[in-house]
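Supplementary Text 2. Reproducibility record for the structural model of the 160-residue chain.

All settings were left at their defaults, and a single model was retained for analysis rather than an ensemble. We include the record here because the model underlies the residue-level annotations in Supplementary Table 4.
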Amino acid sequence: MSYVAKTYEFIEKLQKLFNKKLFSVAFVAIASMGLFFGVMNAYAQENTTGTVDVSNVSISPDWKGIKAFINLANGLGTTKKDEDNMGSQGSLNIANTAYTTLAIIAPDVTAGADEIKNDSDVPSDMKQGLLGFTSNASNYAYNNYPSVGVGSHLAEEWVP
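Retained model, structure tokens:
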């Protein structure tokens, strides 16, 4: 039997399963419970709107610890845990990429957050980070939503 024929038979079996009444009732019930308990539970929480205070959070990478961890994991022992090799340099490159990505997304949680905010050479959108810029853009779009009814506007402007 060819691969195409097996695939066709499998699709026919799936189609028979989806056409059963019990399956459709169970699928709708499970999907609606998932939507209700997965999405609607946010409305049952206490009023927690507002911004999160990240002034106490500061993240800075431990370059020496990363190198020691990788060298120990590679079996070099405690005497060579500070050795530079391909494994430790690769892990430091990955950690540097992750930390740079974090700094671009949320510079408020980096160790140099105050210097970033006070430096005149850093553009204002980079001072906010990707999260701040996106939040400001969505707030702007929400606050400047058009208040004109489309139907009434067309009724006033367009004469048939």
